[in-house]
Amino acid sequence: MAAGSSESPVAVYSAMAANGLIAIAKFVAAAFTGSSAMFSEGIHSVVDTGNQGLVLLGIRRSKKPADSKHPFGYGKELYFWSLIVAILIFGLGGGISFYEGISHLRDPHELGNPTASYIVLGFAFVAESYAFITAYRSLRKTSAGKEKNFIKALRRSKDPSIFTVLVEDAAALAGIIVAFLGVFLGHLFGTPYLDGVASILIGIILALVAAFLAYESKGLLLGESADPDVVNTIEAIAQADKQVDSVVAPLTMHFGPRQVLLNLEVKFVPNLSTSELAQAINRLEGEIRERHPQITRIFIEARGLEGR
User: Given pLDDT bands bounded at 50, 70 and 90, which one contains residue 181?
Assistant: First the structure.
């Protein structure tokens, strides 16, 4: 289920509760029908519920104030917990679904009445569709949302509370479709093997999602730069100042979705007084913060002052 940005954890609480209810419904349907695909979907929803809890934990811990041990704050806690989410999706969601599918293929059994499965899957599809749309709208409100390509927009997003739940919602919709096809085709052709194949496919979908999230989380934990548009704007602001001669490409790093460190090397025009230099630096910092409030720490290195 989707959530809003890390500033609005209420949406995450709602998503976690909804996923819990959907998980129970899927397990009940699996018990009545004996469907391996429905059981895998139940595991999928349980993992999503737990993941929402970890996202909430990451949001809460990332807001801890800076201290002597972590002078730049705890913003990267959110990135750490998004990595744990990826591990859980792969290990619990993908692993159990894959194992369940293999077991069903080795020991197939006749499926029960699929009506319960169809009702639960229909409800889950509607709920997850709404969640996906909500998460997508949240993404579109960010700078990454300006990117028309969906995958590129996800990769440009620096907020796990948006891109993690959005990817989970997409995987949930794909899993529901696969589960439906497994149950429907299994009954249509009178073979329980297709239900097991559907469970394996759900496991593969979850493994792919986990790999994507792990890759994105790794990049953010290592210190990913700000959005290219943000970097270009910073450089343009500095170049436009009348007391700036030239600018070295700005260095940026995310410490959280809305916590960016900026190191800017500027060559000022020669013969500036100390007062003029201080005013120029303050002016640059003010314009940059006004345009990009997520840049919380700015370090400007002044060059070319020997002619003063």
Answer: very high
